[in-house]
Amino acid sequence: MELRNIAIIAHVDHGKTTLVDELLKQSGAFRENQAVSERAMDSNDIERERGITILAKATSVEWNGTRINIVDTPGHADFGGEVERILNMVDGVVLLVDAAEGPMPQTKFVTSKALALGLRPIVVLNKVDKPDAEPDRALNEVFDLFANLGANDEQLDFPHLYASGRAGWADDSLDGPRKDLTALFELVVRHVPAPKQLARQSEPFQMLATTLSADPFIGRILTGRVEAGTLKVGTSLKALTRTGERIEQFRVTKILAFRGLSQQPIDEAVAGDIVTIAGMTKATVADTLCDLSIDTALPAQPIDPPTISVTFGINDSPLAGRDGSKVQSRVIRERLLKEAETNVAIRVEDTPGGEAFIVSGRGELQMGVLIENMRREGFELSISRPRVIFREEGGQRMEPIEEVIVDVDDEYSGAVIDKLTGERKGDLVEMKPAGVGKTRIVAHVPSRGLIGYHGQFLTDTRGSGVLNRIFHDWAPHKGPIQGRRQGVLISMENGTSVAYALWNLEERGRMFIGAQEAVYGGMIIGEHSRDNDLEVNPLKGKKLTNVRASGTDEAVRLTPPVRMSLEEAIAYIDDDELVEVTPKIVRLRKRELDPHERKRQSRAE
Q1: Hey, is 100 helix, strand or coil?
Q2: Would you say residue 209 lies in a domain?
């Protein structure tokens, strides 16, 4: 059987997973009566709720005697640790672009990695049946993007199709029959080369591990493409690091291959195929699994370093332990180390006291997803404000810079440019019209300046703006950046909030809590209208007397409180504040900085 390995890459919400659904259906991967949920490749609960792909996953379909292995890659740069490794397993990429939006930052991020590896792209202009679709403009923008990323002549001469993933069709021209995805299947078989590894089946076995996971029944499992040779269950292999050092020798207990949405045991893995191997105890991503006679490791892609860090600690508030079952630092540490084992983009370090842990990763969204998973598992945590990771180069302090692409209504462009280039020390790169009444702004902004900016951005643009960001480069430190301007309202009492007290406090600022909610001393219950913090009493009830008059008692009508999501809360807090996360609720509170942290914060500024 012939073999093709492809990756599908796209920006968030451009229809990648929906298209894979249709490829699976039309290739006969499902039985006719099989119940299949929408976006079948998004297996994680958070992926389904948010409509984003977080974990890279593989599947395979058969088309007229050719097996096509398809890898669904994450579209967000925070999960780029998955993308860099996945592209090593494939020989071609299908670039999916929204015909209305055109190529976006995460498209650029993944495509640059794919072009650098010499992969040949196929461009699919998706959602061409939308009323605001402009497929010709999007196609020209894709060509410009490829040219800017240094694509070679062969890569610039890319084939393209017009498609609607939701409707399940792809055609060579806009006025095609719009029937099915036959044109895409045929183009993949014709344009993507067969794996060159097929010619190396007689050589000793070699495979580069690209993704790591754990199975409760068979233990640690590594997935990758077989670079040379064949492998049978029971064979002894050894694992080498990127530098060629020996890690362990182990016996292969199981070989799994992707068949539709499931993985099935197979007797033999052949060069060129994407398989999963079990049996090892120490080997991890970027290690080489090979025959005992081989001593040199396969070249592995280096993984981009983390750019932000967050401190995870125990929940030590007076309300701790009411909602969650996992509250001890030992349990939190075990869970974080388990995450770091399977997610190579995350690093975990102990703090000097041992009660808290510094978790470093690629972005706020990645941290938010990890915390959300933990709270659903029953953990209670306290989370610090994200901090940017700096590095030294030639005696100079360097900080990460992000490329920000903003699509905004013309009337709000001035406010956005002022915030990005003024207060947040960014550099304006480009500003151009982007359709009817819209402006596209491109700026290079320090990562520090973007922490907590998204909420302010939505306010400035009345919720109509779209902001995308991606790591750009390292640059010399740009000096202090002003944080949040408003102070907070802090409860001075323990107890249950009273409607009358909150009603009287409304003139002081916005409330984060409603009536009859548990509060404690030090808990943040609202945002002050001025720039200083204010201690208030949310428990103070109305003084009662025996005198009643129809005109003197005013009805208490509370403004609905502002309820923050987990990511909004983490971005909102200041350095001397914490987010208290439990399975049921997210609270904010004040904290005292210890001497080590105070020294580190002053150095960071």
Answers
A1: coil
A2: yes
The predicted model gives 316-323 an average pLDDT of: 86
91 and 232 share one domain: no
Which CATH number characterizes residue 129's domain?
Answer: 3.40.50.300
Indicate if 224 and 142 belong to the same structural domain.
no
* Section 320-330 average pLDDT: 86
Of 368, 302, 374, 453, residue with least CA distance to 54: 368
Ordered alpha helix ranges (H), 377-507: 413-417, 447-450, 453-460, 499-505
Segment 218-222 mean pLDDT: 84
Q: 429 near 443, Cβ under 8 Å?
A: yes
> Which pLDDT band, with edges at 50, 70 and 90, does 96 fall under?
confident
Q: Residue 169 domain-assigned?
A: yes
What are the start-end ranges of the H helices in 377-529? 413-417, 447-450, 453-460, 499-505
pLDDT of 595 strictly over 70: no
Examine the pLDDT at 257 and tell me if it is beyond 60. Answer: yes
Phi, psi dihedrals of residue 364, rounded to the nearest 5°: -65, -35
d(Cα 271, Cα 278) in Å, to the nearest integer? 17
In the chain the first and final C-alpha atoms are separated, in Å, by 61
Mean pLDDT throughout 550-560?
A: 71
Residue 483 lies in a domain: no
Would you say 99 and 5 are in contact if contact means Cβ atoms under 8 Å apart?
A: no
Q: Which of 107, 89, 170 is nearest to 144 (CA)?
A: 107
Q: Are strands 160-164 and 120-126 parallel, antiparallel or unpaired?
A: parallel
CATH number for the domain spanning 353: value is 3.30.70.870
Cβ-count burial 368-389 (b if 16+ within 10 Å, e if not): bbbbbbbbeeebbbbbbbbbbb
115 and 229 share a domain? no
* C-beta of residue 600 within 8 angstroms of C-beta of residue 585: no
Strands 92-98 and 120-126: parallel
Backbone phi and psi for residue 66, each to the nearest 5 degrees, phi listed first: -115, 130
Q: What pLDDT, in 10s, does the model give residues 472-519?
A: 788 898 888 777 678 899 999 899 999 888 998 888 888 998 888 899
How far is 196 from 145, CA to CA, in rounded Å?
28
- Among candidate residues 451, 476, 501, the one where a domain is terminated: 476
Residues 6+ apart with CB under 8 A from 600: none
156 CB-near residues (< 8 Å, 6+ apart): 143, 146, 147
Best-predicted range by mean pLDDT among 19-23, 319-323, 342-346, 460-464?
A: 319-323
When divided into structural domains, the chain yields a total of 5
**pLDDT tens digits, residue range 596-605?**
555 554 544 4
Q: Does residue 210 share a domain with residue 161? A: no
Query: Within 13 Å and on the Cβ side, how many CA atoms surround 175?
Result: 0
* Per-position b or e across 459-494, b if 16+ CB within 10 A of its CB: ebbeeebebbbbbbeeeeebeebeebebbbbbbebe
Pairing of strands 518-519, 534-536: unpaired
pTM confidence score: 0.70
